[in-house]
Amino acid sequence: MDWTDPHCRYFLRILSKHALLYTEMVTTGALLNGDHERFLRHHEAEHPLALQLGGSVPADLAACSRMAQEHGYDEVNLNVGCPSDRVQNNMIGACLMGHPGLVADCVKAMRDAVSIPVTVKHRIGINGRDSYEQLCEFVGTVRDAGCTSFTVHARIAILEGLSPKENRDIPPLRYDVVARLKADFPELEIVLNGGIKTLAACHEHLQTFDGVMLGREAYHNPYLLAEVDQQLFGSTAPVISRAEALAQLRPYIASHLAAGGAMHHITRHVLGLGTGFPGARRFRQLLSVDIHKTQNPLALLDQAGQLLEGR
């Protein structure tokens, strides 16, 4: 949340044409009671694109799934993994792992409402309900409602005492539990999430799982995605350079500026493009500090791009 907005997704799509991109988690209340056009807005270039929903009322999730399909999304994903207090208080996210029957009802309502795929993202458990048998009960119950694709964050969520950030790091990763799940549910698509940082690790996990999801690493080190199409999707197109990626983003930024937007709305998502080479610090400074002082943001963008030449 607050990361994979439309600007971020447009930039990531420049790096990979084939990876499935996800929106931020959007609650059903925000769509049904707020400005749903703002939340659902996306650029045609972002596809393939999944809308991730947070909610626990089947009828509301069905209505929001219909909105997703009407707005051209390729998939709708139900979040059963977010551990924040705010979403728990609204029966959203990881706390739903304690209510597999309700999640099944939600999935059935969503599937009945749309023809696009309905998928579920979840943890391997929550505190107080973290046995493998309970995980299988959850997956089996939701499978019986028609869900065939599960993205599994290979950590439990501690719903009391840990912050969302701590829940992404402190509970240990248990890839072995997810591998056992895939072995016991071979007919299901099981996508592994959690702590994956390299394409070499992706290759290794794809020997066991049907897919891998990159979260924080894809954001903080986005150039990792530049070789995804060639290494994982069989593309023969040349790998885009960092400088060319920024150059391809320039017209989009210029259009945003012309519409009255600020450049930092977009370039905050680009800072990680400077990871791992001499000059990276200056690159980040230009786009995070100097950007607020300049009268000519596109000239500053071009200056930052020059630092990427040959990288």
TrEMBL record:
Keywords: Flavoprotein, FMN, NADP, Nucleotide-binding, Oxidoreductase, RNA-binding, tRNA processing, tRNA-binding. It is an enzyme of class 1 (oxidoreductase). The keyword Transcription does not apply. The active site is at C82 (proton donor). The record marks N79, K165, R168, R281, R284 as: Interacts with tRNA. Residues 1-302 form the DUS-like FMN-binding domain. GO terms for molecular function: flavin adenine dinucleotide binding; FMN binding; tRNA binding; tRNA-dihydrouridine20 synthase activity; tRNA-dihydrouridine20a synthase activity. FMN binds at Q52, K121, H153, N193, G194, G195, G215, R216. Its cofactor is FMN. Its EC number is 1.3.1.91. It catalyses: 5,6-dihydrouridine(20) in tRNA + NADP(+) = uridine(20) in tRNA + NADPH + H(+); 5,6-dihydrouridine(20) in tRNA + NAD(+) = uridine(20) in tRNA + NADH + H(+); 5,6-dihydrouridine(20a) in tRNA + NADP(+) = uridine(20a) in tRNA + NADPH + H(+); 5,6-dihydrouridine(20a) in tRNA + NAD(+) = uridine(20a) in tRNA + NADH + H(+). InterPro entries: Aldolase_TIM (IPR013785), DUS-like_FMN-bd (IPR035587), DUS_fam (IPR001269), DusA (IPR004653), tRNA_hU_synthase_CS (IPR018517). Catalyzes the synthesis of 5,6-dihydrouridine (D), a modified base found in the D-loop of most tRNAs, via the reduction of the C5-C6 double bond in target uridines. Specifically modifies U20 and U20a in tRNAs. Belongs to the Dus family. DusA subfamily. Belongs to the dus family. This is tRNA-dihydrouridine(20/20a) synthase.
